[in-house]
UniProtKB/TrEMBL annotation:
Complex and partners: Component of the RNA polymerase III (Pol III) complex consisting of 17 subunits.
Family label: Belongs to the RNA polymerase beta' chain family.
Main localisation: nucleus
Domain RNA polymerase N-terminal, first and last residues per copy: 1-247
Entries under PANTHER family matching the protein: DNA-DIRECTED RNA POLYMERASE SUBUNIT BETA' N-TERMINAL SECTION
Keyword Nucleotidyltransferase: yes
MF GO annotations: DNA binding; DNA-directed RNA polymerase activity; metal ion binding
GO BP annotations listed: DNA-templated transcription
Protein name (database record): DNA-directed RNA polymerase subunit
Pfam families, per the entry: RNA_pol_Rpb1_1 (PF04997), RNA_pol_Rpb1_2 (PF00623), RNA_pol_Rpb1_3 (PF04983), RNA_pol_Rpb1_4 (PF05000), RNA_pol_Rpb1_5 (PF04998)
Organism per entry: Pogonomyrmex barbatus (red harvester ant)
Database matches in InterPro entries: RNA_pol_asu, RNA_pol_N, RNA_pol_Rpb1_1, RNA_pol_Rpb1_3, RNA_pol_Rpb1_3_sf, RNA_pol_Rpb1_4, RNA_pol_Rpb1_5, RNAP_III_Rpc1_C
Swiss-Prot/TrEMBL catalytic activity: RNA(n) + a ribonucleoside 5'-triphosphate = RNA(n+1) + diphosphate
Enzyme Commission number: 2.7.7.6
Length: 1091
């Protein structure tokens, strides 16, 4: 029998070698790897060998910058180019080139490594043998595996691949040395820098793969991110600094510098003509402004059709577009920089008020990429020529700065000491919902946070304009005023978890500090700068703050990585079908139409809108002045607009878009009318102020229509994967912290990655549930306090002056005295009668016979007369009575009245900590329809699935915006629609995924591999391979993008046999006698209807 058990055990271990509960005497000496262990986990069959594989024709090495390469180029080391090959078929047009490559062989570039003959499976290695003879014998149809050469298409990738722009197509440029090189403008989408990063390069091996790589993955086609349509590939760091210095008001160039700049603009293209503009200064020597040279980047000569138009505020914009004191209002008209200094807001990534974005949208990707390449060459050389250096001399504080710092520190220190003294005397006014200690900490932290900013402003005044760190901070290329302030003046307050350094032991933050000391220097304020050096105590505090940042980053990477994997797995199969609906792999509809309007987020020029009306309007007017036409008046503009938009040509536009367009043009008409009404002088002059002709109006509306049609999303787009990437990729920029909520110090709310996790997991219990309750009367503070008292839990212990047992010679009872003053102060709507009613309805088993009311504040509790007094539970009652809830909701511990100043009026809202959404909405004084909760499941139970969907969208949007991350609403809408598509809120977890997906292979490739496979085998499940994960595992085309359509007729099959047709009947083909007219013969058709 023991042998049978042993055999059974080994059969079990063969399947799963990690079985538990094996008897000690039967445990094997060495555990092997069972079938389950080979399948599951990151290195198992599913994830390690089927969903992802090692591939050939790949290289990996360190990356370096090269500003002379074009935006779409990658510099490939010669060694890599001679190792990686592309199989090129010999044709009449390339046979001579192929013969030359074969003769060169593997050791000379460009050469070839192998030949595969047309009718053979054998490959011939070209290192050995007579290559000249082999070259001469080449035939059409042979395949030559040649070296990589210039302008070959390759895929370039950096891990982690968080979004689709982490892998793009570049054109090769074979160079010496051993690193991959590319233009620094392309760092942002890869999230790369040059401190030792490595990147991967893949060579597509077929013409189809090259075609898809060029059309779909091309670097120039992916200048903008699908997350929100912002420009991602744009000028960075030194290029921004160079452009900022070049376009300063006082930058002038001599003829030699200008000619060199023109050569740099032309680059290797000898055919391009660059027109030298007229000099800005003629005497005593000819000088050109930097702005004139910068304009040539966009339009090098008069024949160039590119006419870019842009008005944008720079980083240092103050007030007044015409007379900005910092020259930071940029005006570009017809590709000429008229005013303004270039900085990060106009040249850098992450903005739509960007000159390269304007070139991309109005003139195409080639023009934008070429302008960017010209900028990198020009600014790089200008930096060399002018010289930009950073040394310790740039960081030495002046005596004036040190005096200013001392003054600021003294002022704020004295304020902090005043707060500490007020608290010690018990006169500190507490903030709503805060204790004295919390109020003091908040006030001191706010006071100390201002010091660094004020010292930074003092640095700005004291430092010379030529100071390099200051230049970098002003133009936005690197660093900020806070960095300068820390280096030169004051490091500032070190915060841990958003608060001052907490007391560790013995009521002190460090052993160096006296106990219970609350002064700034004892709780983490560092008043020295990095230049002056930190004392030991400050060094410890600074290390504590730095340690928090490191641990936060490490934990965050793992959290966001797993979150993104779950998002991708659940959303991967959603795509646009030909009826413009979003469906999953089983063809279930998730959304009709995509995003509510069927537009692609990549092409959004405005905020969730395909046209930036103001910019396009200015562009059309500047590009096409139409000086010979008469300008329109206000009424004509509105009439012409309505007439055009009602014509058939514009039926393709949605009603919402037409409405937006009409609203904008009405605002233009109103502006025209206002000018003509207010200014009574010469009418011809007035009409020129806001001039709009018929041709300009037609051109504007036509341009808007073209942009709208271009922004329509294409069938086959993998919108699910894009949405998952757009939500997951910015997660690395978020923190893992809990922040203060809406300026209320006491109300903490979970933010960042933990909050996103709670939302997409659809957690029923969230860490900080908050209900934002709107009031019926939101301008009356007393009303707000009364409603607060109706919601917040108030116990008898809170309002009772005393609860005492009274023993008399002939009587024995319990006395409760209410504190009437406290009840009035808290605006509680209770009295002695309501409290006695509450006691009768509580779980204490008291009846009205036990209670007696004395006066307006005392309640007496006596035992029943029939029972013995000694058995009455006085002790238990004394302990239980203080916890009896006399007013409010039992689940609500805290409510805070929040006041907000809106346009001179103070408006009050309630922040309710808790989950009881239904009862809060039903509370008298609360405006139910404007009350919202941040708990999705609670909203679903109270208001239904549509409200839950809206909550998911608004909550994710709110968290992202708090971290300065902008995501197009269409991505959030798709995620919310998927989570609520089954009529209940499903989380993006293994439990939620099992309800969303039906494919066994999909679920097995995610988590719990063995469990899903065992269940599927037990129940005999089938998997119709129709999703993304399943198709990849099976090695068949994925039904998305270019694989979405199906051929209903295979051309290689035999023609079907001919069917008999009605018109094959000979009676239709009677010969005509001469002279007789053709008569139509109507055959008699008999219908038989069977019962």
């Amino acid at each position: 029998m023991e042998h049978w058990d042993f055999l059974q055990l080994h059969c079990g271990l063969y399947i799963n070698s990690e079985m538990s509960g094996i008897p000690l005497h039967m445990q094997p000496k060495k555990f092997g790897r069972g079938i389950v262990q080979r399948l599951k986990g990151k290195q198992g069959r599913f994830r390690g060998n089927l969903s992802g594989k090692r591939v050939d024709f790949t290289s990996r090495t360190v990356i370096s910058p090269d500003p002379n390469l074009r935006i779409d180029q990658v510099g490939v080391p010669m060694y890599v180019a001679m190792t990686l090959t592309y199989p090129e078929r010999v044709t009449p047009s390339n046979i001579e080139l192929m013969r030359k490559l074969v003769r060169n062989g593997p050791d000379i570039h460009p050469g070839a490594n192998f030949i595969q003959y047309k009718n053979s499976q054998d490959r011939r290695y070209l290192r050995y043998g007579d290559r000249k003879k082999v070259a001469q014998e080449l035939q059409y149809g042979d395949i030559v595996e040649r070296h990589l050469k210039d302008d070959d298409l390759v895929l370039f990738n950096r891990q982690p691949s968080l979004h689709k722009l982490s892998i793009m197509t570049h054109r090769t440029k074979v160079l010496e040395h051993r690193t991959f090189r590319f233009n620094e403008c392309v760092c942002t989408p890869y999230n790369s820098d040059f401190d030792g990063d490595e990147m991967n390069l893949h060579v597509p091996q077929t013409e189809e793969a090259r075609a898809e790589a060029l059309v779909l993955l091309a670097n120039k086609s992916n200048l903008v991110t699908p997350r929100n349509g912002d420009l991602l590939i744009a000028a960075t760091q030194d290029f921004i600094t160079g452009a900022y210095l070049l376009t300063q008001k006082d930058t002038f160039l001599q003829i030699e510098q200008v000619k060199l700049a023109l050569c740099l603009l032309a680059g290797p293209d000898a055919s391009i003509i660059v027109t030298l503009p007229l000099p800005a200064i003629l005497k005593p020597t000819r000088l050109w402004t930097g702005k004139q040279i910068f304009s040539l980047i966009m339009r090098p000569n008069a024949d160039c059709p590119v006419k870019a138009n842009l008005k944008a505020k720079g980083k240092a914009y103050t007030t007044g577009e015409e007379l900005c004191i910092n020259d930071s209002y940029v005006i570009i008209r017809n590709s000429e920089l008229l005013a303004g200094t270039m900085d990060k807001s106009v040249l850098g990534s992450g903005s739509k008020q960007n000159i390269f974005y304007v070139l991309l949208r109005d003139w195409g990707e080639d023009v934008a990429a070429t302008a960017m390449w010209r900028l990198t060459r020009l600014t790089n050389h200008y930096n060399f020529d002018r010289g930009i250096s950073l040394g310790i001399g740039d960081l030495i504080p002046s005596q004036g700065l040190l005096r200013a710092k001392e003054k600021v520190l003294n002022t704020h220190y004295s304020t902090c000491n005043e707060y500490i003294q007020l608290m010690e005397k018990g006169r500190l006014v507490c903030q709503p919902g805060c204790s004295e200690e919390e109020t003091l900490e908040t006030k001191i932290l706010n006071e100390l946070s201002v010091i660094r900013d004020n010292v930074g402003k003092a640095c700005l005044k004291e430092l010379h304009p030529s100071n390099t760190p200051l230049i970098m901070a002003l133009c936005g290329s690197k660093g900020s005023f806070i960095n300068i302030s820390q280096m030169i003046a004051c490091v500032g307050q070190q915060a841990i978890n958003g608060r001052r350094v907490p007391n560790g032991f013995e009521n002190r933050a460090l052993p160096h500090v006296p106990a219970r000391l609350r002064t700034p220097d004892a709780k983490g304020f560092v008043e020295n700068s990095f230049y002056s050096g930190l004392v030991s105590k400050e060094f410890y505090f600074h290390a504590m703050g730095g340690r928090e940042g490191l641990t936060d980053t490490a934990v965050k990477t793992a959290e966001t990585g797993y979150m993104q994997r779950r998002l991708i797995k659940s959303l991967e199969d959603l795509c646009i079908h030909y009826d413009m609906t979003v469906r999953n792999a089983m063809c279930n509809i998730i959304q009709i139409p995509y995003g509510g309007d069927g537009l692609d987020p990549t092409y959004m020029e405005g905020k969730d809108c395909p046209v930036d009306y103001k910019r396009v309007y200015d562009h059309v007017r500047a590009k096409m002045p139409y000086r010979t036409e008469e300008p329109l008046d206000a009424a004509s503009v509105i009439n012409a607009t309505n007439e055009m938009l009602s014509s058939e040509e514009y039926d393709c536009l949605s009603n919402e878009f037409k409405q937006e367009l009409t609203t904008f043009l009405k605002s233009v008409a109103w502006k025209i009318a206002r000018y003509r009404q207010n200014i009574k002088s010469n009418s011809s002059v007035v009409s020129e102020l806001e001039r709009l002709t018929v041709s300009q109006l037609v051109e504007f509306i036509h341009t808007c229509k073209e942009k709208y049609m271009g922004a329509k999303i294409e069938p086959g787009t993998a919108v699910g994967a894009l949405a998952a990437q757009s939500i997951g990729e910015p997660g690395t920029q978020m923190t893992l912290k809990t922040f203060h909520f809406a300026g209320v110090a006491a109300m903490n709310i979970t933010q960042g990655v933990p909050r996103i996790k709670e939302i997409i997991n659809a957690s029923p219990k969230i860490s900080t549930p908050i209900i934002t309750a709107a009031l019926v009367n939101d301008t009356d503070s007393e009303f707000a306090e009364r409603v607060k008292a109706r919601i917040e839990k108030t116990t008898l212990g809170d309002v009772a002056e005393y609860i005492e047992e009274i023993y008399m010679r002939d009587d024995h009872f319990l006395a409760i005295k209410l504190n009437i003053d406290r009840i009035k102060l808290l605006k509680l709507e209770i009295d002695v009668n309501s409290v006695s009613y509450t006691l009768c309805t509580s779980k204490l088993k008291l009846t009205s016979k036990n209670l007696e009311i004395v006066g307006d504040s005392i309640i007496i509790i006596r035992p029943n007369r029939q029972k013995d007094n000694s058995n009455f539970p006085f002790r238990q009652l004394t302990e239980a009575l203080p916890n009896i809830i006399v007013k409010g909701l039992s689940s609500i511990n805290r409510v805070i009245v929040h006041n907000e100043n809106l346009g001179g009026k103070t408006k009050f809202t309630l922040f309710v900590e808790g989950d009881n959404f239904r009862e809060v909405m039903a509370t008298p004084g609360i405006l139910g329809e404007k009350t919202k909760s941040n708990n999705t499941i609670e909203v679903f139970k109270t208001l239904g699935i549509e409200a839950a969907r809206t909550t998911i969208m608004s909550e994710i949007k709110s968290v992202m915006e708090n971290h300065g991350i902008n995501i197009d609403r269409r991505h959030l809408m798709l995620l919310a629609d998927l989570m609520t598509s089954r009529g209940e809120v499903l989380g993006i977890t293994r439990q939620g995924l099992a309800k969303m997906k039906e494919s066994v292979l999909n679920l097995a490739s995610f988590e719990k591999t063995a469990d899903h496979l065992f269940d599927a085998a037990y129940y005999g499940q089938k998997d119709i391979i129709c999703g993304v994960s399943e198709s990849i595992i099976m090695g068949i085309p994925v039904p998305l993008g270019t694989g979405i359509f199906k051929l209903l007729h295979k051309a290689d099959k035999d023609e079907p046999s001919k069917r008999e047709l009605l018109f094959d009947n000979p009676q239709y083909h009677k010969p005509l006698r001469s002279g007789r007219r053709l008569q139509r013969v109507r055959p008699r058709l008999t219908l038989q209807i069977s019962p």
